[in-house]
Specification:
The complex is a heterodimer of chains A (381) and B (836).
Chain A (H helix, E strand, L loop, with lengths): L17 H17 L3 H12 L4 H8 L5 H40 L18 H16 L2 E2 L5 E3 H4 L10 H4 L9 H6 L10 E3 L4 H10 L4 E10 L11 E11 L4 H16 L5 E8 L2 E10 L23 E10 L1 H6 L8 E8 H9 L5 H4 L3 H4 L7
Parallel strand pairs in A: 1-4
Antiparallel strand pairs in A: 2-3, 4-5, 5-9, 6-7, 7-8, 8-9
Helix pairs in contact in A: 1-2, 1-4, 2-4
Chain B lengths: L1 E3 H4 L11 H10 L3 E8 L7 E12 L6 E7 L10 E5 L9 E5 L4 E2 L3 E2 L3 E3 L2 E3 L2 E2 L17 E2 L9 H4 L4 E7 L10 H12 L21 E3 L5 E10 L9 H9 L7 H13 L4 E4 L7 E5 L5 E3 L5 E3 L5 E5 L2 E5 L3 E2 L17 E8 L1 H10 L5 H8 L6 H16 L2 E10 L6 E5 L2 H6 L5 H11 L2 E3 L3 E5 L10 H12 L19 H15 L3 E2 L5 E2 L1 H6 L24 E2 L4 H13 L5 E8 L21 H8 L7 E8 L1 E3 L8 E2 L2 H14 L5 E4 L5 E13 L2 E11 L1 H7 L6 E6 H7 L15 E10 L4 H12 L3 E10 L8 E10 L8 H19 L2 E2 L3
Parallel strand pairs in B: 14-17, 28-31
Antiparallel strand pairs in B: 1-13, 2-13, 3-4, 3-6, 4-5, 6-11, 6-12, 7-8, 9-10, 15-23, 15-24, 16-23, 17-20, 18-19, 20-21, 21-22, 25-27, 26-27, 29-30, 31-32, 32-38, 33-34, 35-36, 36-37, 37-38, 39-41, 39-42, 40-41
Helix pairs in contact in B: 5-6, 6-9, 7-8, 11-12, 13-17, 20-21
């Protein structure tokens, strides 16, 4: 800053004339407007607002004015500098926005590019369907019970009221485990007496559940079971069952029916009826086969050749599984007093359920582990 | 069981308009599984008439013998002139009565008949075989030759009963009585509320002492034996058309009159019968257990060595039949037309113990119509009637004479009664039926019912399956209609959801799927070949497998002891189908017998077994732990626009193990290992602290090249297998939340040179031990080998992060901690600080 000018010279304060200040201001504004980029704007900024810019120099001259002129000149210069700074900031913002917009455009990518770097995994639909069914019952208060797949005949048959010579026992197509003697000698003959089998149903888990718990017992038993069927489009020797068992005081067939209807609604939606047909199983009495109304045609296809239904073969009904009231003999073998308690049981195959719920046409697809089959099912079903 | 509707109508006056589908619905509701209703003669329209062959001209010069015939069809052709027909069959002669279809008719299968030129002649119709008319097998494979009594021109559609409906019923083991028209008709009558004409209600002469002698040595196994004799049978007599047709519709083949009659009566009444040629029996008929080693040639021509438990029918020479299963060839009645036809027969109608018959049939792998019925229970009270019915038919159709002698050996047994509260069915069903309905329904079933609140129910002789109150409840409920049951929802006690174990199994599946693995559920069957391919030593415990008596395939007779072979097969299958970048997983049981499994004793079922008894049973079972396993091949990460992918390696397999363990809340300890089927230099042992002990829980790595070759897997296939049951036990209690410090972190890097054989895990452990409490985390960010390090050396570069809970660390503090960490590594692993 120059020192105050005590003996000012009017000629030297030419720069503080109003027209001069206006000119300086207008030149600055014009220069900012003309700046095509941030670099040019910076140059203009130095030229028009820097310490050697005309306005700055003019400002310095104010001190040289007579006191009575200082106020007016100061005001004039101040207003001009204010306008210049404002214009500079506006132009700065404008140019930055332009630059940013340009950079973001340049950085644009094709977001439709695939990114299958790590292909997705999936769980088997039999697993997830099983879990879904478990969840329906767990929500009702049931426990999930499990048991061994290699099982003693007592648990698999005897305790379930399949006597040793029961025709139904022969109908179960059982895999028998070799006894020790046979295994040692490597011969299979005459070794059916090991008393151990691959479980033919998950019902032995029910027996174990009853032995393990004090009634009331409400369990759902999912698991793998084995029968000596050859693998084809509709059979597999290794399949998955879910059974449920309820033991309590005063349980009735009406309770059984209501429970299964609840499950059908949970899995297939509202409005489907179910049907019980008398049947026979050694471990339940009375016994029934359970059908649900076909969820595709809703029964419309039965006896209606114009509306054939592949899902139910135009029967209108889909066979779900077997059920009934637990035979009191089974309760006795499991140490439950049939005078006090009654119970119901229901069992069905998950493979069949998967087949008609998801239009699986060939059982082999569930068995072979082909990733093209399993992958689309993802994590939940 | 196949039941023609026309036959059932003989016993129940069904409304005329009832179709097979209607009847099916009613019977299904009553508990008979009517699988389908077969429509016989659908689309069949005449004229189909009886014709008499007038002339036969053999046509020569064709590849097969052809006959040009003229046939008298009465007025059926409108002219009364002989009908000219070309025929390829040869089993008829001039004068025979045959079945002729005339132009304009349509045979089953939309087969329209018209006059047509063939073999140089015009054939005005066709002489028909049973097959062409949809009649089923009649055993002749030729055209039908009718008995002479029918006039030419007679309508054959009616004569041969070609239009009918047949119910095909899958009879459950408890409903043995429904293996007869009588039983099915009874259900039908009840379902329609109509009276039943019981075909077993016959006048039967009282037994006397001059019938054929029978001695029953085992009255427990044979509580009833009726024998009747018919003589003077016409050797030329053949089964009439109606009889043949009923057998055919029921699925049996007509054989000879006597055999057809016994089969017919069995179908009608459910009582298996046997006819012996009396001239071929020597001495009295006996019923006893077989001597061990005795032999019998059964009717199917098989020579069988008998078991001491087999019940046999004998004459003076020895066994002549396997009781209730099959007769013997020795005393077989001869077919008509045979050189010496049987003209005298002894009819057996007996009742055998179901278990005795079931065991014999199983022992000799011989299923028969008779055995099927005895196993499921035959009405013992119907035996006499069945014998009488057979005698009547032999007299009627074969011109025989019934001998007056009637043999009946009966071990009397009281009727079976069940005590049941009158409201028991109500309590089972959850419906109020009331005593009156209960009693009425039980009476419909054939029971006698006494009592008020407590009912005494005597079950009918044909329902041996009714033994318990619940059996009676089922009868009431099914006749009242299962479809009329209401729906209610029971209120279970509040549940606790899934167990920790079940939640773990789900999490493991989700975590592996989330890491890109696809679940495969493989059969657990393996063979020795797979165990050999794994490269297992002879004494490897994985060779001790559960073996099956009756495997589906002889090459896979055992159960898996490891999940890997199944996954290998699935991997190979996918690879063969063109998927080469694969990551599969499975969780499931493996079966690990120790060889010390006990043989289970057969426990009673009339009480709860004791805990000791249950433990003894369980001791018969192999250990069945649950495992998780993965296999990987091809690219783990794909190459793409983002850059290079990378192949799946041993490290992915080990990481899969860590992924599983992490879900169990367990930190795995990884060690170098050598273990089949892995590459000896690329195999990790996976350990965890189980019950306070460091325990091997699994293995992971790259497969041995010999193993990939043996299983036909892609090169460098990697795998991991880990035991979930052990991880579950390794789980520590609820996690304590970490304290999160807000003070700044001090980062220090350190590069250590160690021998190549030193495990990175050991270096890391040493650094951690030396760094002390200030170490927040440590990460290996580079592994480097190169000439400047020297032969057999590697450099491991770690980033160490230090932080204090209560202050900002000074540079000196951080450096001191780093130096302490390095010292520890130097001491424990021989590491040298790089650049030091």
């Amino acid at each position: 800053m120059s020192a105050p000018n005590k003996s000012y010279d009017p000629v030297e304060v030419e720069a503080l004339k109003p027209e001069e200040i206006e000119r300086m201001r207008d030149e600055a504004l014009a220069a900012f407007a003309a700046a095509g980029g941030l670099d040019a704007l910076h140059e203009a900024k130095v030229a028009h607002t820097g310490p050697t810019s005309p306005l700055s120099l003019a400002n310095r001259e104010i001190g040289a004015l007579p006191p009575q002129a200082k106020a007016e000149a100061g005001k004039r210069v101040g207003m001009a500098r204010g306008a210049v700074n404002k214009a500079l900031a506006a132009r700065q913002a404008e140019l930055e926005a332009e630059r940013d917009a340009r950079v973001l455009v340049e950085e644009a990518v094709d977001v439709t590019l695939p990114h299958d770097r790590l292909p997705a995994g999936a769980r088997h639909p039999l697993t997830t369907l099983c879990e879904r069914i478990e969840d329906v019952f767990v929500a009702m208060g049931y426990e999930v019970a499990e048991g061994p797949e290699v099982e003693t005949e007592w648990f698999n048959f005897d305790a379930l009221n399949f006597g040793p010579d029961h025709p139904a026992r022969a109908m179960q197509d059982t895999f028998f485990v070799q006894g020790k003697a046979a295994a040692d000698s490597g011969s299979a003959a005459g070794s059916a007496e090991s008393g151990v089998v691959l479980r033919t149903h998950t019902s032995p888990v029910q027996v174990r559940a009853m032995l393990d718990r004090e009634p009331p017992v409400y369990v759902v038993c999912p698991g793998r079971v084995y029968r000596t069927d050859e693998l084809d489009a509709t059979h597999t020797p290794v399949f998955t069952q879910v059974e449920l068992l309820a033991i309590d005081e005063g349980l009735t067939m009406a309770d059984l029916k209501g429970t299964i209807e609840h499950m059908v609604r949970s899995l297939f939606g509202e409005g489907l009826t179910t049907r019980l047909r008398p049947n026979y199983f050694p471990f339940t009495e009375p016994s029934a086969e359970l059908d649900m109304q076909c969820y595709v045609c809703r029964g419309e296809s039965a006896g209606n050749p114009d509306r054939p239904c592949r899902t139910c073969s135009s029967e209108g009904w889909i066979e779900l599984g077997g059920c009934g009231m637990v035979n009191p003999r089974v309760l006795i073998a499991a140490g439950i007093d049939p005078e006090k308690y009654s119970g119901f049981a229901f069992g069905f195959g998950i493979e069949r359920l998967l087949m008609f719920r998801h239009n699986v046409e060939d059982m082999r697809d569930m068995v072979e582990g082909d990733v093209r089959f399993t992958r689309p099912f993802g994590m939940e079903i | 069981m196949r039941a023609p509707l026309s036959w059932l109508r003989e016993y129940v006056d069904l409304p005329a308009g009832e179709t097979g589908r209607d009847v099916q619905a009613e019977l299904i509701a009553a508990g008979l599984e009517v699988e389908r209703v077969e429509q016989l003669g659908t689309g069949l329209t005449g004229p189909l008439v009886v014709g008499q062959v007038l002339t036969i001209e053999e046509l020569e010069g064709f590849r097969k013998p052809i006959r040009f015939c003229t046939v008298d069809v009465g007025q059926a052709n409108g002219t009364g002139e002989p009908q000219e027909i070309v025929c390829g069959a040869r089993n008829f002669s001039v004068g025979d009565k045959v079945v002729v279809v005339l132009p304009g008719a349509v045979l089953p299968g939309d087969f329209a008949i018209a006059a047509r030129k063939t073999y140089g002649k015009t054939s005005h119709g066709m002489i028909c075989s049973g097959e062409e008319l949809g009649m089923g097998d009649d055993g002749t494979h030729g055209i039908i030759v009718l008995p002479q009594e029918y006039e030419p021109g007679t309508d054959a559609i009616e004569l041969l009963e070609l239009v009918d409906e047949v119910l095909d019923i899958a009879v459950t083991p408890d409903r043995g009585y429904c293996l007869s028209m009588r039983g099915i008709a009874r259900e039908l009558a009840t379902a329609y509320g109509l009276p039943l004409r019981d075909p077993a209600l016959l006048d039967v002469p009282a037994p006397n002492s001059y019938g054929y002698p029978v001695q029953v040595a085992d009255p427990a196994a044979c509580d009833r034996f009726t024998a009747r004799t018919v003589t003077g049978l016409d050797a030329e007599a053949r089964s009439p058309i109606w009889l043949q047709r009923r057998l055919q519709k029921a699925g049996m083949r007509p054989v000879s009159l006597t055999v057809d009659i016994t089969n017919y009566v069995m179908l009608e009444l459910g009582q298996p019968l046997h006819a012996y040629d009396r001239t071929r029996i020597q001495g009295a008929i006996g019923v006893r257990r077989a001597e061990p080693g005795e032999k019998l040639t059964t009717l199917d021509g098989t020579k069988r060595v008998l078991d001491a438990e087999d019940l046999v029918i004998t004459d003076d020479r020895g066994p002549i039949g396997l009781a209730g299963v099959m007769g013997g060839a020795e005393t077989e009645i001869a077919d008509h037309g045979a050189a010496t036809s049987s003209t005298e027969v002894v009819i057996e109608a007996a009742h055998f113990d179901p278990i005795v018959v079931a065991r014999a049939a199983r022992r000799h792998k011989l299923s028969s119509e008779a055995a099927k019925r005895f196993e499921r229970g035959v009405d013992p009270q119907a035996a006499s009637a069945a014998a009488q019915r057979t005698v009547d038919l032999l007299v009627l159709l074969a011109g025989g004479t019934a001998e007056a002698g009637v043999t009946e050996v009966v071990t009397p047994s009281g009727p079976h009664t069940i005590a049941m509260r009158a409201d028991h069915p109500d309590r089972v069903a959850g419906v109020r039926y009331g005593r009156e309905s209960v009693v009425r329904r039980l009476q419909q079933v054939g029971c006698d019912v006494y009592g008020q609140d407590e009912l005494i129910v005597t079950v009918p002789s044909w329902r041996p399956d009714l033994t318990d109150p619940n059996d009676l409840a089922e009868e009431v409920i099914r006749l009242e209609g299962y479809e009329n049951l209401p729906s209610t929802l029971p209120q279970p006690p509040a549940g606790r959801g899934l167990t920790e174990r079940q939640r773990l199994h789900r999490r493991v599946g989700r975590a592996l799927a989330g890491a890109g693995y696809v679940e495969a559920l493989n059969y657990p069957f393996v063979g020795d070949e797979a165990l050999n391919h794994l490269g297992l030593e002879a004494d490897d415990p994985r060779r001790t497998a559960v073996r099956l008596v009756n495997p589906l395939s002889d090459t896979e007779p055992a159960l898996r002891t490891t999940l890997l072979p199944g996954l290998f097969a699935a991997l190979r299958r996918n690879d063969g189908r063109g998927e080469h970048d694969l990551a599969l997983f499975e969780t499931g049981l493996v079966f690990r017998p120790t060889g010390d499994e006990a043989t289970p004793v057969r426990l009673p079922v009339d009480r709860r077994p004791t805990d000791e008894e249950i433990a003894a049973l369980d001791a018969a079972l192999p250990r069945q732990p649950r495992r998780a396993a993965v296999v990987l091949a091809g690219a783990r990460e794909q190459t793409g626009w983002w850059g290079q992918g990378r192949p799946a390696t041993w490290a992915d397999a080990v990481e899969a193990g860590r992924t599983v363990a992490r879900e169990a809340g367990v930190e795995l300890i990884v060690r170098q290992d050598q273990h089949a089927p892995y590459h000896p230099g690329r195999c990790a042992a996976l350990l965890a602290v189980v019950d306070g002990q460091e325990t091997l829980v699994g293995n992971a790595g790259e497969l041995h090249p010999r193993v990939t070759k043996a299983f036909g897997l892609p090169e460098r296939t990697c795998a991991m297998e880990i035991e979930l049951d052990l991880l579950e036990r390794a789980r520590t209690g609820a996690l304590q939340a970490p304290h999160v410090s807000a003070f700044p972190v001090a980062t220090q890097d350190v590069a250590l040179v160690v021998d190549a054989s030193v495990a990175a895990a050991d270096v890391e452990a040493a650094l951690k031990a030396g760094a002390g409490e200030l170490l927040e985390s440590l990460r290996l960010f580079d592994v480097f080998t190169g000439e400047q390090l020297g032969e057999g050396k590697k450099s491991l570069a770690y980033a160490l992060r230090f932080r204090a809970d209560d202050r900002t660390l000074t540079a000196e503090e951080a450096s001191a901690a780093r130096e302490a960490a390095v010292r520890s590594a130097v001491e424990r692993t021989g590491a040298v600080l790089r650049g030091a």
